């Protein structure tokens, strides 16, 4: 069988042994493991840095103030079993913009699981690919807090994809303050992709699990106080990943891509199946509604990772996002015991729109575009109100060289017309999720794309990482500023923007 780490197609650099790039700033144990998500652009870093006065190509805009934060996996210890990117210890990278200058820092999320492993000196978690062990963790595996990050109530919140325990992180120095608990909430579990409404300051969150109630939904105010949380009736355990939020409603997801909980209990493995004969259901609930007020709408079977935006137009509720009709692509020959993981991570999705008539119950749905894109973001000031633009990552399919999940370009969509604009990162250059950064003083009355789009890239030709700043109105012109980062930044998951008027007011 061909070595998996040798077919990630990353160019070689000066220090290269056996066709595999070796880094001086990574964990040495990765070179004993044949897993592409531990090599090349995915290789973890061992450094935690704090560097100001970063070199800039071009000029940072004077009306750009705030910080770009990105969470992602960065394992410290060699995994006990097969490694999956969800198993890597969470690390947050931050690029801070202020007065035309840029500062970078990165820190591990100091989770309970990481602290225990550091004390033991080795990893004890069985990992996402199992077998799950509920004697080690209430989740059966390690809660790494490596998936999502958002700015709320003066701090960053770090979350895990599998509805783990959220952590509160200082937005200034990136130190972990401890668990994030909502006042008066009896438990803390919360899914990644809970959302903050920048206009009201409210946090809209959901939780899910393998035991009834299989889902809950709640709202907290801007001060971190629980307003209400309700149980959502589902037919069984599900793995929802996101929600949609308009001004008055929240759209909950019941998707036909889930595991058999009996197999998990008997054998310790979470085996996902896409049930093509089961419709996708969307539960629409008033923002502060009860479980009894949920109205379910049935759509074509699919899986959804990330929504872009939702809004109301008369009797209609519209949701834009990325839709996958093949959430578990076929495994490829020669991939061995990692075949299922590699197939799952090869994300196939496209820009899509759903429309729900709240008076008649009618559903309309269809493609906005067929290009393979995901990790989609919009102007956060437009959350819940009608918007046109979304900023996606271009993801090559397997036959295009997309052996592993990678982002090769930034795509801006006009979701009204379906028109798209692209900027390729370059051969061997890979991006991360981009965020929209409003200009200083911008509101939802400002032009929707009168701001900036920011992402991180790593050039595998040189292993240099950069932070790119684009004019949101013209991404095809390329970045207006390119900030040179002080070390290689591994590929990660989700990113967030914290506006300077909030971030620096607390520093």
TrEMBL record:
Its cofactor is Fe(2+). Binds 1 Fe(2+) ion per subunit. GO terms for molecular function: carotenoid dioxygenase activity; metal ion binding. Keywords: Iron, Metal-binding, Oxidoreductase. One of its GO terms (biological process) is carotene catabolic process. It holds the Pfam family RPE65. InterPro entries: Carotenoid_Oase (IPR004294). Fe cation binds at residues 193, 241, 306, 494. Coiled coil: none annotated. PANTHER family: BETA-CAROTENE DIOXYGENASE, CAROTENOID 9,10(9',10')-CLEAVAGE DIOXYGENASE 1. Belongs to the carotenoid oxygenase family. This is Carotenoid oxygenase family protein. It comes from Sediminihaliea albiluteola.
